[in-house]
Amino acid sequence: xxxxxxxxxxxxxxxxxxxxxxxxxxxxxxxxxxxxxxxxxxxxxxxxxxxxxxxxxxxxxxxxxxxxxxxxxxxxxxxxxxxxxxxxxxxxxxxxxxxxxxxxxxxxxxxxxxxxxxxxxxxxxxxxxxxxxxxxxxxxxxx
Length: 143
Ligand code: 5GP
Prior knowledge:
The chain has helices at residues 11-16, 61-81, 127-142, and strands spanning 24-27, 31-35, 45-49, 86-90, 106-111. The chain is an alpha+beta fold. It has a single domain (11-112, 122-142), classed as 2-Layer Sandwich (HIT family, subunit A), CATH 3.30.428.10. Helix 2 (61-81) packs across helix 3.
């Protein structure tokens, strides 16, 4: 099978270029953090490195350390923002694994005892809910 290559027309590349909107939580030179529009749970957040790669498999190793420093910060922030019992951190590689957007990203999902995750890429959340949740996470990151 031919090796899959990065395609800059993917939806997260468009968000990174500012071509389509997102409910942004944080941005610096290395990453952008925004709300997943089809959350699997309240506060489902995506941490996206700016450097282009399809996923973990073709990523520059130099990207991964800083990326996971941000993942840890966001995981701590969502736990605080939603008073969660735990946090799921997950990342998919290629369609066989469940990947649907082909720009490397890490899912950070607050978890609550006894509450299962909703389906992956399921129902769209209301923009006002995403905006409110992004605000809560921003506040937690700042404190
Ligand atoms: P993957 O399956 O590639 O790991 O996850 C892609 C994620 O992106 C899914 O959880 C899906 O809900 C989310 N998603 C898909 N399209 C958009 C979009 O246009 N904006 C945002 N913020 N999230 C999206």
